[in-house]
From TrEMBL:
Record-linked InterPro entries: DUF2116_treble_clef (IPR019216)
Recorded superkingdom: Bacteria
Name of the featured protein: DUF2116 family Zn-ribbon domain-containing protein
Length: 122
């Protein structure tokens, strides 16, 4: 029986065993799959890092000044706050839209001012 020589998709070594086998061992299989998923994993990791950083900035302001805090865009930006990322929004009865980073939120006011709040349900 003439068998075609099969090689590992990851490292190029010869494969022995089942005919449908693609990798020489578990290590090569894991390495290959980790490389394939790296872009997605890094994207999610970076977004989560930014969300946590935003939350920590809001938490520090609330902890320093009390329940409700009013601050300006410049102070948030200097602290490293990224306005593109938030976890969810809440619209109150008046129509104001709060953006949240987990349990801390902010409401954009007039003139680059923001009201920082903590969600009480958490």
């Amino acid at each position: 029986m003439d068998q075609e020589k099969r090689i590992c998709v990851n490292c190029g070594k010869a494969i022995q065993g089942r005919l449908d086998k693609k990798f020489c061992d578990d290590s090569c299989r894991n390495t290959y799959n980790n490389k394939q998923n790296a872009d997605t994993v890094n994207l999610v990791r970076n977004i989560n890092y930014t969300l946590k950083k935003n939350r920590n900035i809001l938490e520090a302001l609330v902890r320093e000044h009390g329940e409700l805090v009013k601050t300006n865009r410049d102070k948030l930006t200097r602290a490293g706050f990224n306005f593109r990322y938030f976890t969810h929004t809440y619209q109150n009865k008046k129509g104001s839209c709060y953006r949240y980073c987990y349990d801390f939120g902010y409401l954009e006011l007039e003139g680059d001012w923001f009201l920082i709040v903590r969600e009480k349900d958490f």
